[in-house]
Amino acid sequence: MARFLAPEAFSAATEDLSLLPFNLERTGTNQYLVANIVGDFIRLTEDELNRLIDLRIRPGDGLYEKAYAAHLISGTNQKAQRQLLAARLRSRMSFLQHVTPLHIFVVTLRCEHSCPYCQVSRQSTDRSRFDMSEETAMRALDIAFASPAARIKIEFQGGEPLLNFPMIKTIVAAAKSRSGKTVDFVIASNLALLDDVVLDFCKANNILLSTSLDGPADLHNKNRPRPGANSHELAVAGIRRAKEILGPDRVGALMTTTEASLDRVDDIIDEYLQLGLDGIFLRPLSPFGFAIKTKQFAKYDAQKWLDFYEHGLRRVLEINRQGTPFREFYASLLLTRMFSDRPIGYVDLRSPAGTGLGALVYNYDGSVFASDEGRMLAETGDNAFRLGHVDQDSYNSLILSDKLIGTISSSLTQCAPECSTCVYESHCGADPVYHHATQGDALGIKPLSAFCARQKGIMGLLLDILDNSPEDAAILRRWAAP
Amino acid sequence: MGALEAAAYRLIGTATCQIDRVADRYFCRLAPSSKPQKGAVLSSDDLKERFLNLVADENLRTRVAEKTEGVRNVILALAFGSLAAAQKDAG
Question: Is residue A288 classed exposed, middle or buried when 0-12, 13-18 and 19+ CB atoms within 10 A define those classes?
Answer without folding.
Answer: buried
